[in-house]
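Q: I'm building a small set of examples for a reading group on sequence design. Run inverse folding on the following structure and report the sequence directly after it, with nothing in between.
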């Protein structure tokens, strides 16, 4: 099952990457019940493998790629686009490119329950950017862009429940959501100094 596959990815990464449903926040979560890599008996395993520098970099790369749900080729292109440029921080630019994806923004403001769900909403034509429907999940939003649900989709039962919860959702400081209009806005570029992953290791992995 897809759910089982994602649970294995989280266990292999050593942390929750998808947060795909309510179960992820309860003791029933597979990651909570089995907080060790698939195929291993954590504390009873006698001979642990030693992680090399390459292995650690690979793990970070896979962690970031799986978290944002990006293909290997697309993720490699993101890294190449920021590496080797003078006058900019590659890690900041890479983080910015990942966070500014439309599917990620839809997830961040609360329209999508997960990044996978947000990607489906965009691909199925439910999301509008600056008054125009967008079906490209990887679209890079810009400061000042306004994101909302297409008028024809607002009557769906799923969105009615989402709108009720959105006022309580905590969103990043670079985004804004107006509960009265159901509209989100990009008010600044994404900046986060406490990342749950090491983007420097990711860039080093691709520079080999």
């Amino acid at each position: 099952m897809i759910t089982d596959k994602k649970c294995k990815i989280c266990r292999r990464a050593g942390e929750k990457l998808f947060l795909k449903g309510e179960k992820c926040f309860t003791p029933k979560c597979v990651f909570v019940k089995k907080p060790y890599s698939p195929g291993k008996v954590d504390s009873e395993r006698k001979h642990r493998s030693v992680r090399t520098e390459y292995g650690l970099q690979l793990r970070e790369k896979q962690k970031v790629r799986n978290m944002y749900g990006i293909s290997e080729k697309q993720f490699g292109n993101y890294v190449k686009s920021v590496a080797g440029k003078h006058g900019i921080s590659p890690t900041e630019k890479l983080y910015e490119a990942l966070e500014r994806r439309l599917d990620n923004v839809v997830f961040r403001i609360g329209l999508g329950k997960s990044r996978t769900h947000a990607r489906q909403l965009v691909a199925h034509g439910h999301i509008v950017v600056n008054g125009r429907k967008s079906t490209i999940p990887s679209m890079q939003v810009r400061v000042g862009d306004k994101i909302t649900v297409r008028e024809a989709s607002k009557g769906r039962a799923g969105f009615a429940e989402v709108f009720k919860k959105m006022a309580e959702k905590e969103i990043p400081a670079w985004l804004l959501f107006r509960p009265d209009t159901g509209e989100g806005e990009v008010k600044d570029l994404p900046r986060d100094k406490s990342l749950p992953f090491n983007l420097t290791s990711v860039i080093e992995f691709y520079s080999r």
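The radius of gyration is 19 Å.
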